[in-house]
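Sequence of Helicase C-terminal domain-containing protein (Panagrolaimus superbus).
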Amino acid sequence: MLLKTFGNISLSAEAIIAKENKEIDKIFEPNYASGKLKVLLEKVDYVIESGDKCVIVSQWTSMLDIVEHHLKKKKLKLTEINGKIATKDRQERIDSFNQKNGGAQVMLLSLTAGGVGLNLIGGNHLFLLDLHWNPALEQQAFDRIYRVGQTKDVFIHKLICKNTVEQRVLEMQENKIQLAASVLEGAANKTNKLSVNDLKYLFGLAAER
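Predicted 3D structure, token representation.
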């Protein structure tokens, strides 16, 4: 009787593990939409229905690929600029996005490519999918839609998950902005590197600030 009980416990544990693995596998399926992605898609729908255009920014081209997959199902007109797109091919994509009537409705933009002086005033909404510890890099991306020639109100949307490392990154950004504002201009370069203490804080290995 005891052996039978142990056997049942073992089978039950295996069933639980199999179920958990199945749930994890769903995350990697092409049609899976995370909570953050669902919110993004809802907001993009609102922007397009309002007659506006938007820029979607991520540090990761793989994330932009996922977003692209879901937006294509909505039959939206998309264009993209990332590090793989040759400089000579970018202007055509920019011109398409900046058309007042027609052209691309959504620009998918990698964060690093977004800091190279692009003018994307065709859009007035920008969605940042993942935070970067250096707020200056994000600001460069925001400035792509907030430039001379912009005729609409500009909206910046940062999508942040509660109780994740993203909240710590946001707090770190705020600390670095305060530091840059309080020191001499020449010393502001201190914000360009992550210190060991910064890394400990991000991963919960240091005391709360």
